[in-house]
What does this fold into?
Amino acid sequence: MGRFSVWLRAGIAACGALLMWTAPAAAQVDIVGVWQQPGNGLVTLVDVRPGSRFEFRGGQYEDMWERCCGGGAGRGGPVAADFIGIPLNEAGRARAMAHDDSLWEVPEHQCQPHHAAYAYWGVGAPTINAVLNDAGRLVAYRVEGTYRRMPREIWMDGRPHPPDYARHTWAGFTTGEWRGNTLVARTTHLKKGWVRRNGAPTSDQATLLTYFTRHGDVLTVTVFVDDPLYYTEPYIKSTDYRLAPTVPTASFDDAGTPGTCYGHTTVVFSDEHPVPHWLPGQNPGVGDRAKALHVPVEATLGHAESAYPEFIDQIRAWREQNPIETPPTAVLERDSGGR
Amino acid sequence: MDGSARRTRGIRLAATAAGLLGIVVGSAPARPVLTAQAGADPGGIQAVHVREQVWMLVTPDGNLALQVGEEGALLVDTGRSGTSDAVRAVIRGVTSQPLRYIVNTSAGPAQNGNNAAFRTSPGGVLDQPGSGGEPEIIAREGVLLRMHAAGYPVAGWPTDAYLERERSLRFNGEPIDIIHVPSAYSDGDSIVYFRRSDVVVAGEVYSTKRFPLVAREHGGTVEGVLAGLNRIVDIAVPDVVVNSFAEGGTLIIPGSGRLSDQDDVVEYRDMVHIVRDRVADLVAKQRSLEQVKAARPLIDYDGRYSVPEWTASMFIDALYAELARGTSNDGGGAVR
It folds into this structure.
């Protein structure tokens, strides 16, 4: 009996070792699929720019406010110089305040994809596929994009991040590992980018930690943007997706260049190589958001504390000192275009 | 279950587990080898394949470029003096072809320090007498003048000091444009465009590591740097992917720093343009150099591009001296 138990124990131990070896693949929650933000499933049309319209079939998306309803001119876009909740440091604030929305009209800026730090808030439905090797083992997850999102791999095979001299891209270079039921992905080698389309910047030194957590048919994606150059602390934002019953389609409704983007002149600048920007202290958008919300201007200029609930106490104190004298009326806020 | 059955089951479990374990171990994907596209690493120098016939040689002092093919090798910049053996070893890791051409993008020490060593070495990098003679050294005339003035050994001087706006040649089946960039880092700058490989070598005009160097005493200007960057932006064409947007395309080898594409140069160009405008605005308001520095016009970029050998303060010196020239507050000192 004792001898048999030894064999049995050896077999069980070997199986245990096998299970531990394969645990990351066997125990993980599957994130493969087509995901979309909850909505009514109807077709949504968004004017990208005059003559170019984006059509999205599926749900709504979390930045709808920023895209359709944030400002004026009927094309939406985030409010200019509104950086509430973004932990900008002095350098980051200077960079953000220099942003002029006209920059998006410069040909070489027109076709820039959405940066990985922003991509999950754009329109569309992430499609996540597993990349397997010939032996059927997971090598990577591939996240296909839709609007302006560069496809990206989340490498799961333990490969190192590239050396310093390697290119930086809009998608960056990402590796991942499972921690329990959450896939944690680390991204480096990013280009400069933004977390709001009104110029809230990220530098090419920024790195991302992205957490993919699935709860049934809901996938929560949480992104930590750590930028030693422009942030005082990581900027954190999450979004929820629902498993899509059908595959949404996305296309560009632009007869001239269907499905593609070429930078071209849409605004005539006086300079052959224009770089629209605001000089320090001259950004005309500063104060618009503060006026609309009746908060101090400084509260809109990107400070870490403006992301925390306690900040409302400062707002209340300020409002007691600065009561609203007349009922606020609708303020036509400057927008950042329909990009 | 009797003991025999238990034993048999246990053996099967163990055998099955061991077998599966073997399959798992055996099927583990091979780790990617980043060095598969990189050459040897003597003296901290690495050869990185960029595209087609072009390689980037990453040295501690900056980047060199190498084009190789059936006709031989062409080296863009030769590296700092004293590193020729290391550069030669890395080139040998890429090709055994003789060195036929050298192009200097400027007269800086990291660009032509090893000119003489490569010029006088029999057969170029091949070290075989009679294998092809001495390589031609092509550079803008300003490089020749600077090397002459600096007492550089004659053996390392350009043998073809061009005066046109650009010098074009075909080598290894590829049209190559050597394009003069007037008054940028100096008065002898060139960028090199490998048309078929679709790679631009930017020289000192572009760096991902620091503010642009401006050797004012050698005819360099920030305006010239800006024009050079715009020229690169105009040459470069990004990839356009169906239903997506621009990435990659023409690749740019900077004078120092990481391999780049058009957008990286656009970001750098935007930076130079913006800080130029800020300093110009302060100069127009009659601010002194000290007042300009106190206003911190480079605040959003100095954490990224200020390095000990070329600080934000030094770059402001160069900007101020250039922008205040001819104004009542002209007094900025020349730098570098």
